[in-house]
Amino acid sequence: MAEQTIEYHTERTPVAADSTIPTVVCDGVDIIYRVNGTGAGRGSATAALNRMLRREKAEKAAGVRKVHAVKKVSFVAYKGEAIGLIGTNGSGKSTLLKAVAGLLPVENGRIYTHGQPSLLGVNAALMGDLTGERNVYLGGLAMGMTREQVKERYQGIVDFSGINEKGDFITLPMRTYSSGMGARLRFSIAAAKDHDVLLIDEALATGDRSFQRRSEERIRELRQHAGTVFLVSHNNKSIRDTCDRVLWLERGELRMDGPTEEVLEAYEAFTGGADKPKAPADKAA
Amino acid sequence: MSQVLHTPPQSPAPADEDDLAALAARHGLTVSGARPSLPEYVRQLWERRHFITAFATAKLTAQYSQAKLGQVWQVMTPLLNAAVYYFIFGVLLGTKKHVPDYIPFLVTGVFIWTFTQSSIMAGTRAISGNLGLVRALHFPRAALPISFALQQLQQLLFSMAALIVILICFGVPISVSWLLVIPALFLQFTFNAGVSMVMARMGAKTPDIAQLMPFILRTWMYLSGVMWSIDKLTKADDLPHAVVIALETNPAAVYIDLMRYALIDSFHSSQLPPHVWAAATGWALLAGVGGFIYFWKAEETYGRG
């Protein structure tokens, strides 16, 4: 079962949406969080001791709360699809993505994937005290690229981020960047790799309008190379622009699964009216 | 291989449940987040070797990047450390009367001990302190404790440069035996990385261990002959045999004494514990291989829950 081939080098030929090859299969997935230090003991020392001594038996008594974040979700994603995940805050979208990436355990059910899905999140590997340049290398290596690949794509990453448009900023420590610049560089690094299954969590809400447009462009490209793209966003416009299918999660349950327009209409009716059309300021609400 | 997602038997299911599993099997999809086999794990880790070294170097340089003197602190910090220990143990307590070349003896001990100590401390927090990284990216998690041990090794190389200067200043002659430093450091690094991996797994499950470690490590330090000569103590023959054996096979003491033997001409082979190279290799193998397997066994649990 060590079939998790991590293909670093393979040049993929672009594939159109192919409704016969599944890349992600979610089979009745339940996800439950356990949170320490709540309820009964209010995090007191006795509650903590209680928790250590009695473990499973008295989870509740010791103040462990269970949060049922995703409930019985099943779907099949196919090669070449771009799937949007929508839902109000706290409806389990990000949780579901993390589980698909294999970073969270599922309570019931199974998630099967083709290759190794990757979360578009390189932020954690970057260090503010290092220059942008060294962070590009570090981030690329952290995502599993080889040194040669990073070297090869370095210029592309920097150009895409547009960090150097206003001067030689890539050689400054990242802590000196504005939050927008930092976000642009992070997205550029993360999007530099081709992924089998790519999971994006609200990455498009960053940067200015021109950068957002470039990001959407890049996502369409990634989608051609990658098998499947998942996008979590509160920005209905970027979902419309990038996705052809939408899953709507509400309170952890899969409420709707269908073509973008259909689901978004129902969702907009549910949340009380459509977003104001073409207002550039309405990013992730 | 076993599936490790703690999945209890399926509860009453929608009609297409079997179909989905069958569909996944038909197209050769694998279960997300399963632990790779040991050889596969080693292969993945090897593929990430550049990340491991880049991460270690990045951590090391980030450490002093805000200081005015910058990287000079890499050498200053160990020198100041040695000065403090010299003041307390050499001047105030007068240990130096019993040991020839006391300053090189002490400084070597402090540097080599610090290497093991900081590797273990960093290892304890390797997973629990980097949850963001673990939760965002896929890589063999052993890369983290190994990377931290490597960072400490790089730090030690700076200290060794300072140490060489001290040795020469105190008139220790340069000799061929200095080459023994290389195998000794290699063995110690393997030992440190192994213990780090054990501590990383324990620290990931129970972060509270990080609070306890400083006390355990300090006790270990005082038992390891960092500031005094174990040899003097064991030759005094009023100690029970078991205690002597324990003191002499203590891995920290083994590595410290090996380094002193390699660097200081007045530290003779008669002062080394018996079978010192065998002990050094044995500890390295035991910790390195054992620690790696122990860490791998819980690979899929890191960063969860």
Could you explain how this protein is built, in words?
- The complex is a heterodimer of chains A (285) and B (305).
- With 285 residues, chain A is α/β, with parallel strands linked by helices.
- In chain A, 32% of the residues lie in helices and 24% in strands.
- Chain A has a six-stranded mixed beta sheet, with helices on both faces. Chain A has a three-stranded antiparallel beta sheet with strand order 2-1-4, with helices on one face.
- In chain A, helix 6 (209-225) links the parallel strand 6 (197-201) and strand 7.
- In chain A, helix 3 packs across helix 4, helix 3 (132-142) packs parallel to helix 5 (179-190) and helix 4 packs across helix 5 (179-190).
- Chain A is globular, with a radius of gyration of 21 Å.
- Residues 1-16 and 276-285 of chain A have low confidence and may be disordered.
- Chain B is mostly helical and 305 residues long.
- Chain B has one domain (37-301).
- Chain B is built from 13 helices and one strand; from the N terminus they run H-E-H-H-H-H-H-H-H-H-H-H-H-H.
- In chain B, helix 7 (143-169) runs antiparallel to helix 8 (181-205).
- Chain B is elongated, with a radius of gyration of 23 Å.
- Residues 1-15 of chain B have low confidence and may be disordered.
- Strand 4 (108-113) of chain A pairs antiparallel with strand 1 (30-31) of chain B.
CATH superfamily of the largest domain in chain A: P-loop containing nucleotide triphosphate hydrolases
The share of residues in helices of chain B is 55-70%
Kindly state the number of beta strands of chain A. Answer: 9
What is the highest CATH level, the class of the largest domain in chain A? Answer: Alpha Beta
Architecture of the largest domain in chain A, according to CATH?
Answer: 3-Layer(aba) Sandwich
Q: What is the count of distinct domains of chain A?
A: 2
